[in-house]
Structure formats: structure tokens, C-alpha cells
Amino acid sequence: MLKASDRAMNVEYAIRDVILPAKKLEDKGIQVLKLNIGDPGKFDFDAPEHMKKSYCDAIMNGFNYYGDSEGESELRESIVKREKDKNGVDIGVDDVQITTGISEAINLTFGALIDGGEEILMPGPSYPPYSELLKFYGGEPLVYETVEDEDWQPDVEDMREKITEETKAIVVINPNNPTGALYDKKTLKKIIDLAGEHEIPVISDEIYDLLTYEGEHVSPASLSEDVPVIVFNGFSKVYFATGWRLGYLYIADSEGGLDEVKEAIEKLSRVRLCPNTPGQKGANAGLTGSMNYLEENLKKLEERRDFAYKRLNEIENIQTQKPQGAFYIFPKILGGPWKNDKEFVLDVLNNAHVLFVHGSGFGEGGERHFRSVFLPPIETLEKAFDKLEKFMRKRL
User: What predicted TM-score, i.e. pTM, was given to this entire model?
Assistant: First the structure.
């Protein structure tokens, strides 16, 4: 057998890895309630009609060619306006790259930053592609603590203690995946100031920026005068178009300290040819058209968030903080016979037929936790959590 590369074989992605044992149950005819993947399109959410129509019209009107590697100028101009209107950030079209979702934005950025041996500071727990892609490029994840009893807010002093000469950037995921935390302006300003002290950029993942329930999202780019900020965003979550695989990154850098990194990202963008051309027409319609759909979707999500928070805290040996953004909840497992959280998740799957994601799959800080989405209707959530409660009673 031809040996595969170690860097590829060592990649793990817990959110989708847990689907493999679930499929074995489904192959036997067992119904599994899947609360593992943050995909609104799997439930009663959909991209708005004007976005879908624009996408379809683009296909029918011949926008089926290779586009510009950096993305279509029309969409990039709309992103510039969007970021100015929402965050007060002054960027130009040349600062924006369209990507195949945020996953590719992470890939391009780490490919441009990392030669091997460098460190990136990221929250614990954290969205898995940050650590996995960093390690793929030979970098080293440095994890800073987020404090569960303080609604998973970042510990800036812990961040300060962990920065070394090899640290190339600080990652902020806000609202956070997997915890649903929303970081306040004061904390973000401290992070910007810390990055400035060490002359490193902040990488800000803002894919859930308009999905908040208490408080409003603040972008670090809006708080920085001279610290460069690389922002990731896209159309999967706020615009409910997950399968379109369209995102973007932009670099807010008034001093030009990231000019070479920007050039490297552009080179990598050309190697992968271009993002989805007709889809960009639909994405642009999302940025320029009505967002009235968002109010109703937020109302549904908040009701489901409140139900999940209340119901999970009623289950013995399960305890959770209330998420303030996104559509995830990250409960703690207080006791039981399981050696670790992955064993717990697989036990729940095999015996209660409900699929969660083990918290350790999100790295340091996720141990003895699990992540659930609260995207399904309350009737489905109730059924899943009733099964979980019955399972816990049997095990404890």
C-alpha cells in the first residue's frame, strides 16, 4: 500500500468525523437525530428568494465562466460598502478576496503566513480548521483560555503570557463556535492593544456577526488605528447559503505591514483559479437586497436557544452557559462512567440515537463538553433532549 502523507493522515475534523458511526446506524435503518453540524439549510431555514433568483438568473444568463481569481469586482465593491456601513472600516476593493467559504480563507491565510514552526494564538475551545490547517502547514497552535463561568469570555492575561517570539497572529472567533460567546468591545480593544504591543495582526472570524441575541457584534477592525486586522466573513450563516461555499477575507492595514502577506494570499488565490462565478451574483444580491428575512430567523433561533438552554440545564449532570450568538450551545458533562467526552458522545449516539460533537474535538478547553446546534424546530429539540435525559438516567 502506498503510504499517505503524515500531514494529511493526522488531520481531524470532529464535526464531520462523528457522522461516520452515525451512518452505520442509519444503514441498519435506525433514525439518528443529528445535532452536530451548523447547517441551517438542513432544517427550516433557507437563503432568501432574491439571492436564489439572482444565482439562477446568473446561470441562465451565461455567468458560467472562470471569474477573476480575487473575485468579481461587483461583489467586492458591495463588501467594501457593507464593512463601511456596519463596522466603519475604510478598505478598498483591492483589500478584499472572495473565497470558497471561510475554510478557504483560513487555508489561504495560513498558507501565506506559515513556513513551519511559527505559532498562531487561538481560543480554546476553537473551530477545528484553525488548528488542523495550521498544523498541516507546520505551524503550532497556541491556545488561550476562555472562561466558562464568564460566558466563555477570553482571558486576555492568559493570552499575554502565551505570546512568544514565534507568534505570528491572534485569532478571534466572535460570535464563537463552539460556545456561542459574544465578546464585548472592552475585551476586543484589549486584544487589539496586546497585538499592537507585539506587532502582530489579529485574525477575526465574523461569520456569525449578525446572529446575536444579547448585545451587538463588534469587529476588532473597527477598534484598530494601526494594528492590522484580517477579517473572515461569508454567506453561509447570516445569509443561510451554506452549500454555496462563498466567503471573503479582507485586510484592514493602514500601515502596510501586511503587504507581502496580502501578495502571498493573492498568489495562492490564483493557483486555485477562482471562486464560484454565478454564486457571486447571488451573494451580491444578498448584500444589496432586503434583509427583512433575518428578523424572523433570529426570532426562531432565539426561541430555540432559550428552549435548549433551559432544557439541557434540567438534565442531571448536564450544565451549560447561555450562548449570546451563533446557533451552538456547549454543555458540560459533570459526571458519569465515561472516560472522556468522545466516549460520552458515541455512547449517546449508539444508545439514544442522538448525534452531538465531542467537546475535545474543538481542542483545549473543550474537554468534558459536547456541542449541540439549536437549529431544529423546538419539537425536534424536545425529542432529542428527552432521549438524552432518559439516557442519562440509565447511565447515572
Answer: 0.95
Beta strand pairing call for 247-252 and 96-99: antiparallel
Grid coordinates belonging to 170? 491572534
* Preceding omega of 125 cis (within 30 degrees of 0): yes
Gap between the Cα atoms of 165 and 152, Å rounded: 27
Which tens digit of pLDDT belongs to each residue from 62-80? 999 999 999 999 999 999 9
Report the chain's C-alpha Rg in angstroms. 21
Q: DSSP assignment, residue 141?
A: E
Preceding omega of 377 cis (within 30 degrees of 0): no
- Pick from 291, 174, 248, 235: nearest CA to 41: 235
Query: Given phi > 0 = left and psi -120 to 50 = alpha, else beta, which region is 332?
Result: beta
User: SS3 for 358?
Assistant: strand
Separation CA 225–CA 218 (nearest Å):
15
User: Which residues, in sequence order, are CB contacts of 215 under 8 Å at separation 6+?
Assistant: 182, 184, 324
pLDDT tens-digit map of 152-165? 999 999 999 999 99
Q: Which residue is listed with cell 487561538?
A: 122
- The SS3 of residue 119 is strand
User: What domains, with CATH codes, occur in the chain?
Assistant: 6-46+293-395 (3.90.1150.10), 49-288 (3.40.640.10)
